[in-house]
């Protein structure tokens, strides 16, 4: 009997960082199930990645439990097994205006998608992950660790995601490991749906904000995900990994 190749499920995987992660694992020969709410982005992703046999694209709203249950059933019927879950789905725009005018519905929308969605995905994938000593990777943000004005809902949701990560690690170990990644400035323009053919080059000032000398790419995040779900990381759980080119360690003074 031929053993099934390993399988990974990536939410918010039709564009941006999620799409970069999906492409990385497709190239490694994994079966990749991409879940995304944006049907237009899913169609663009289908065209960009070429519909290989090891890719499944499924529409889902991760903030709704019935939708998660339905999408996971579809993914598991196709993939048969599950080795890794990447909770990447989220509302990307961090700014919501002054807190005095922030509507409760807007606050709740970010919590529902960025944090509750990860909880629901973990809740319903854990039985499948246990069978293969699987792994969960939550994509948080450096904004969980430092802030700009008017980003309370986004920062709170991403901070909660880091806390959810170490809680999952304790509850699910040793069967399932859980870690999070906090990306900094990641240039996702080439990985967006309907991406521009020749995006404007980033400025020297943009690059120089990073001790590494450049802005990050989705491939940088994908490489860390690949490590965290690999056997080489079997002693790593409950941790948050900052991928920001050293930006959060750099003291920046106003001119």
Describe this structure in words.
The chain is an alpha/beta fold and 255 residues long. The chain has a single domain, classed as Rossmann fold. The chain is 40% helix and 14% strand. Strands 3-2-1-4-5-6-7 form a 7-stranded parallel β-sheet, sandwiched between helices. Helix 2 (39-49) links the parallel strand 2 (31-36) and strand 3. The protein starts with 6 loop residues before the first strand and ends in a 12-residue tail after the last strand. The mean pLDDT is 94.
Can you summarize this structure?
It is built from seven helices and seven strands. It is α/β, with parallel strands linked by helices.
List keywords for this structure.
NAD(P)-bd_dom_sf, 255 residues, 40% helix, oxidoreductase, oxidoreductase activity, alpha/beta, NAD(P)-dependent dehydrogenase, short-chain alcohol dehydrogenase family, Rossmann fold, globular, Sc_DH/Rdtase_CS
Coarse shape: globular
Counted by DSSP, the helix tally is 7
**Uncertain residue ranges:** none
**Topology as a string of helices (H) and strands (E):** EHEHEHEHEHEHHE
The domain tally reads 1
What is the topology, as strand order, of the major beta sheet? 3-2-1-4-5-6-7
Give the termini separation. 66 Å
Percent of residues in beta strands?
Answer: 5-15%
Query: Which architecture name does CATH use?
Result: 3-Layer(aba) Sandwich
Bin the helical content. Answer: 40-55%
CATH level 3 topology:
Rossmann fold
Strand elements, count: 7
Average pLDDT, all residues: 94
**Global Rg:** 18 Å
Q: Summarize the main sheet.
A: 7 strands, parallel
């Amino acid at each position: 009997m031929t053993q099934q190749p390993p399988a990974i499920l990536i939410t918010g995987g039709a564009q941006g960082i999620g799409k970069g992660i999906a492409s990385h694992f497709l190239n490694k020969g994994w079966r990749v199930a991409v879940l995304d709410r944006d049907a237009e982005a899913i169609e663009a992703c289908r065209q960009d990645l070429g519909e290989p046999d090891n890719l499944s694209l499924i529409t889902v709203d991760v903030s709704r439990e019935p939708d998660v249950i339905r999408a996971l059933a579809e993914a598991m019927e196709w993939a048969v097994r599950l080795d890794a879950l990447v909770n990447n789905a989220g509302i990307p725009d961090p700014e919501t205006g002054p807190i005095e005018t922030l509507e409760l519905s807007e606050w709740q929308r970010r919590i529902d998608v960025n944090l509750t969605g990860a909880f629901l995905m973990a809740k319903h994938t854990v039985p499948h992950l246990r069978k293969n000593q699987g792994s969960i990777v939550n994509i948080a943000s450096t904004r969980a660790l430092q802030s700009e004005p008017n980003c309370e809902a986004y920062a709170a949701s991403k901070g909660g995601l880091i806390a959810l990560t170490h809680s999952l690690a304790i509850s699910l170990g040793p069967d399932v490991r859980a870690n999070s990644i906090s990306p900094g400035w990641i240039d996702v323009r080439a990985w967006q749906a309907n991406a521009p053919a020749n995006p404007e080059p980033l400025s020297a000032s943009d690059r120089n904000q990073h001790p590494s000398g450049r802005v990050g790419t989705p491939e940088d995040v994908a490489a860390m995900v690949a490590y965290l779900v690999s056997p080489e990381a079997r002693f790593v759980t409950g941790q948050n990994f900052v991928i920001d080119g050293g930006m959060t360690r750099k003291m920046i003074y106003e001119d």
